[in-house]
Amino acid sequence: MTAYYCTHMSTSDPASFRVDNAESLGRAVRYFREQEGLTQAQLAARLRIRRPTLVDIEAGRMTAQTRRLIEIFKVLGARITIQKADW
Fold first, then answer.
1. Whole-angstrom Cα distance, residue 43 to residue 23?
2. How many folded domains does the chain comprise?
3. Are the CB atoms for 21 and 14 separated by under 8 Å?
4. SS3 content of the chain, % helix, strand, coil (to 5)
């Protein structure tokens, strides 16, 4: 059975996410979008994507791109960790 993590990685860094699937990626995107005070429409416009695409990502729906990204790291034996950048 594969473990899926959809929560923050640690209590010391509440803005750190372990991404193992589309759901955990979507939760991270939503968290950071909300922290920046952006609506889905605003973020989609900045990214030059359609809002429904962003909705799918935040909802944890597997897209071709998210599937590829997650599978790349699984094959490499690596894990994606997302945290607030200091840049």
1. 19
2. 1
3. no
4. 50, 10, 40
Q: What is the CATH number of the domain that holds 62?
A: 1.10.260.40
pLDDT of residue 45: 98
- Higher-pLDDT residue of 38 and 1 is 38
Do the domain assignments include residue 4?
no
What gap in Å lies between CA 15 and CA 7, rounded to an integer? 10
What residues make up the domain containing 75?
Answer: 16-83
Angle 8-1-82 (CA atoms, 0-180°, nearest 5)? 25
Find out whether 30 and 58 touch, Cβ atoms under 8 Å. Answer: yes
Q: Give the Cα separation of 13 and 8 in Å (integer).
A: 8
Segment 19-51, tens digit of pLDDT: 999 999 999 999 999 999 999 999 999 999 999
Instruction: Find, among 71, 16, 48, 67, the residue nearest to 5 by Cα.
Output: 16
